Amino acid sequence: MLVLFAPLVLKILELCSCCKWHKHSSLLLLLVVRNLHLLDAFEGRWGLIQNGTGTFGRVHLVKEKMAKRYFALKVMSIPDVIRLKQEQHVHNEKSVLKEVNHPFLIRLFWTYHDERFLYMLMEYVPGGELFSYLRNMGRFNNSTGLFYSTEIICAIEYLHSKEIVYRDLKPENILLDKEGHIKLTDFGFAKKLVDRTWTLCGTPEYLAPEVIQSKGHGRAVDWWALGILIFEMLSGFPPFFDDNPFGIYQKILAGKIDFPRHLDLYVKDLIKKLLVVDRTRRLGNMKNGADDVKRHRWFRSIDWDAVPQRRLKPPIVPKVSNDGDTSNFEAYPEDDWNKMPPVPPKDLEIFKNF
Ligand SMILES: *[C@@H]1O[C@H](CO)[C@@H](O)[C@H](O)[C@H]1NC(C)=O
Ligand SMILES: *[C@@H]1O[C@H](CO)[C@@H](O)[C@H](O)[C@H]1NC(C)=O
Ligand SMILES: *[C@@H]1O[C@H](CO)[C@@H](O)[C@H](O)[C@H]1NC(C)=O
Predict the structure, then answer these.
(1) Would residue 177 show up in a list of annotated catalytic residues for this protein?
(2) Is the CB of 85 under 6 A from ligand 1?
């Protein structure tokens, strides 16, 4: 591929010697091969990829030339991925996204790597983060909270049916598409449960029931997080908070929840049943799985077959002028993140299958 397209790339590089594309000749190559336009042309990129303490990549908006479809292209610097210990997360995200296909999960179309960067071509979801809407509105009313909860439950149920635990449910990881339906994004913490390497290495006589049934083992964390999320959507703040993490952990373990007075009676009951410390008694994690959650009285008006067909009416319709509108995301200025030299072969080995 490289040899075949090299003359073409050189030609394009000549044409735009003014821009900084030479740092990214491989990116340019793949754009040519995939017939994509890089829309932000390395100026105001609209997304940073962070691990909390540092930046290890950028998200670009790209457009397919013929079909005029938009995509998000994640470009991650390999040295930064390694420095910020994100190797596992990046691999997780790729392997999980490759095997899922659901209306409420972001789609991954293609991955690639060269000597400096990892590339992931993903669906572009223009509505922005649910987090921004929640912070702007303070809190959601009962029916708005109910709508997002139903779509999130369908997404979790689907992931669990594929033996995947999401493990990072929070408003920052929920994007809205242009109609206002959700898309879960960021699968860096997601984990495949039944993985041949460890189911085979246990001695059968000694395996715990939840390991055998692959129930209760891990899935429960998503139902707990759902309880926190529903509480936060309807209250505007999480149920357990403190100035320091230790204080938060203590409150979580004590399990005492102070509900704001305005909360619906049934949703309080639902939250209490999700925020059960003993995971074997937590709603969603018992014999009937997600069905127990779906049958809860707060959801009694919901037609669950209509939910994954995106037939519920979204309460918030993002302001999106076209499919490539980036105004619901923050733009970030140019920086030095991509001035790295090529990665030594030993480091590249980590990503040889990417
Ligand atoms: C981010 O990277 C730093 C630096 O290596 C690491 O110490 C930290 O654990 C990482 N944070 C997360 C949330 O992975
Ligand atoms: C919240 O929504 C549910 C489902 O539509 C409904 O049954 C309940 O009465 C609502 N509660 C309030 C306080 O509006
Ligand atoms: C709830 O909030 C949504 C979104 O802001 C709004 O459209 C709807 O009218 C509100 N519903 C009620 C019952 O207040």
Answers:
(1) no
(2) yes
